[in-house]
Write a structure and sequence with these properties.
By secondary structure, the protein is an all-alpha fold. It has 15 helices and four strands. A two-stranded antiparallel ribbon has the order 1-2. A two-stranded antiparallel sheet has the order 3-4. It is globular. The relative contact order is 0.10.
Length: 407
């Protein structure tokens, strides 16, 4: 049985494209920079109350877990008078030996930021979710009577999503809130993909190597397939390295893995999310979305490399597409026609999943993130088909030229 030549070809493309010494060094530097960035960001969040970690530990051990009226009452006996003084602007910033931290002002900030706000959210979330579900049910009946089936069906879905929701326990989610809003690593991944991939096809044109490859029987097709496989391996490996590092550093800093079994709407930012999954499942899903967004840009980078004649042109074009896509996500909120095809939308999954958003598709309410995901896959498919068409066209053209030359 003849041994397949495709796997060694993929290995050759990997070594030639991104397993070079300078590329590995660049990757290691950015990986270290990302680790330092998220580590310092976590400690910056907790820095204001670092001198009072012992005080915090004592109160957290008392308040963590199931929220009970006794815990709420005990917290309010401490925070209630401080809140009243804050409203009256009579808090003292002077050193107070009776204070838990340094003064009344720091006590108020300490208990509000670390306990009161999250515990209040946890305690009231079940009632708020029930109110949303009931209101959505009422609106569904009202719209159905008025003949607006889209609005009726949309509110039925909302009522079902929020039915029976509750946050059973109070915990500290500072580290996971940081990870939810951390975008530095995905931008580094895209930069690391752009640098080697912008020249993956340009180099063959500049050295006239593509003329030789496409005159062979399978050289053109197998070479293109190997390049695509190498690009996917690059994107997958970088996402695994960077996103995995983010997760592990937050997990090591917070030191509490059981919080991953809490519902994702335990985070106040995600209180209106349509997702009824755990925090751990959400971060896995978000990583998959980001990977798909990275793959969308990888397909664009490959297509630009095939279209351009110089590596610098391909690099600048790819960088312009990347910056344009990211900026478009900021200016296209509420404009679905500017979102559904943009791979950058998948790089920030919290924006897609933080609230219920639907699109009217033939009278049926379809979640916006489903259409965005499908649109990005469509863009990837178009880019790949265009790329394959160009290479097949070149392949056939070069074979005809070779035949004419031999005659």
């Amino acid at each position: 049985m003849k041994k397949s030549r495709f796997t060694p070809l993929v290995g050759f493309e990997c070594r030639k494209t991104f397993l070079t010494p300078w590329m590995l060094l660049f990757m290691a530097v950015l990986l270290a920079a990302n680790g330092l960035k998220i580590w310092s960001a976590y400690h910056q969040v907790t820095l204001p109350f670092a001198p009072y970690r012992q005080v915090y530990g004592d109160f957290y051990s008392r308040y963590s877990g199931a929220v009970t009226p006794e815990k709420v009452s005990h917290l309010m006996t401490i925070y209630g008078p401080l809140e009243e003084k804050a409203k009256n602007m009579t808090l003292s910033g002077e050193y107070d030996p009776e204070a838990y931290t340094y003064s009344e002002a720091t006590d108020e900030d300490f208990f509000r930021r670390l306990f009161y706000t999250q515990m209040k959210y946890t305690y009231l979330y079940g009632n708020n979710a029930y109110a949303i579900s009931q209101r959505a049910t009422e609106l569904s009946d009202l719209y159905r009577q008025a003949g607006s089936l889209f609005e009726a069906r949309k509110n039925e879905i909302i009522a079902r999503d929020f039915s029976g929701r509750s946050v059973p326990e109070f915990h500290e989610f500072q580290g996971w809130e940081l990870l939810l809003n951390y975008d530095y690593s995905v931008m580094l991944v895209l930069i690391l993909c752009l640098f080697p991939l912008c020249g993956i096809f340009v180099r063959e044109q500049s050295t006239q190597m593509y003329m030789l490859l496409r005159t062979t029987k399978k050289g053109g097709g197998q070479t293109v397939a190997a390049k695509l496989t190498a690009a996917i391996l690059l994107a997958g490996g970088l996402c695994l390295l960077f996103f995995g590092l983010d997760f592990l550093l937050v997990l090591a800093s917070s030191g509490c893995s059981r919080l991953l079994s809490c519902p994702v709407y335990a985070l106040p930012y995600m209180q209106f999310t349509p997702l009824n999954i755990t925090l751990g499942q959400y971060f896995l899903l978000a990583a998959l979305w980001k990977f798909l967004g990275v793959l969308g840009f990888v397909c664009i980078f490959l297509l630009l490399s095939s279209l351009c004649r110089q590596t610098l042109t391909a690099f600048l074009s790819g960088l312009a597409c990347l910056i344009g896509g990211v900026l478009l996500t900021e200016f296209s909120r509420g404009r679905f026609h500017l979102q559904w095809w943009n791979p950058a939308q998948l790089l920030f999954p919290r924006a897609m999943t933080s609230r219920e958003e639907f699109v009217n598709v033939l009278g049926l309410p379809v979640r916006q993130w489903i259409l965005v995901t499908a649109g990005v896959v469509l863009v990837m498919g178009i880019a790949l088909l265009w790329l394959l068409y160009r290479n097949r066209s070149f392949h056939n053209r070069m074979r005809r030229r070779a035949c004419h030359a031999s005659v």
